[in-house]
Structure formats: C-alpha cells, structure tokens
Amino acid sequence: MVKWEYKVLPLTTRVHVDRLTAERKPVIDGVQNELNVLGKDGWELVGIQNIRLEDGRLFTVAYLKRQKP
Q1: Which domain covers residue 35, as residue numbers?
Q2: CA-CA 20 to 30 A from 21: which of 5, 28, 61, 68?
Q3: Is the dihedral of CA 29, 35, 37, 38 positive or negative?
Q4: DSSP states of 6-19 as a string?
Q5: H or E segment at 58?
Q6: How close are the terminal C-alpha atoms of the chain, in Å?
C-alpha cells in the first residue's frame, strides 16, 4: 500500500501589475521557482487556497504530497 506525507506551506507571492508578460498576464515572482525546488525534492502540488486574514491581508497556501520511502 502506498503511503504519503504532506506539506502545507504559505507561498511568497509578489504580483507586479505594472509589469506584464507578452500575454498581458501579471508577473508573479518567486512562486514558480519555489514550486520547482519542491518538485525536485519529490513534492507534488495537489491544491492551493487563497486565505484572507481578518485584517484584509491575502496570502496563498500550497498543499503538497510525496510518497514516503
């Protein structure tokens, strides 16, 4: 039977609305690199969630899993 381990972590996301890609999408720094590093360690992204705190701040949480050895 396959056994899994899980990781829940906040993602550091900085969106630059003044800089757009060629497809007119905002530039999001750091997230892709952070997820690629985790992927090299065997983690698979299985979900994300945006959470708004009572003070109005918004952040993104990533849910990852990988097979236990």
Answers
A1: 4-67
A2: 61
A3: positive
A4: EEEEEE--EEEEEE
A5: strand 58-67
A6: 12
Side chain identity at 64, as an amino acid letter? L
Percent of the chain with pLDDT over 70: 74
Q: Which two tokens stand for residue 35?
A: 């997820």
Q: Name the residue with tokens 């997230």.
A: 31
Do residues 63 and 4 lie in contact, with contact meaning Cβ atoms separated by under 8 Å? no
Taken as a whole, the chain contains a residue count of 69
Phi and psi angles of residue 40, each rounded to the nearest 5 degrees, phi first: -65, -25
Closest of 43, 46, 47, 45 to residue 68, by C-alpha: 43
Q: Is the pTM of this model over 0.90?
A: no
Looking at residues 29-44, what average pLDDT do you find? Answer: 88
Domain count, the chain: 1
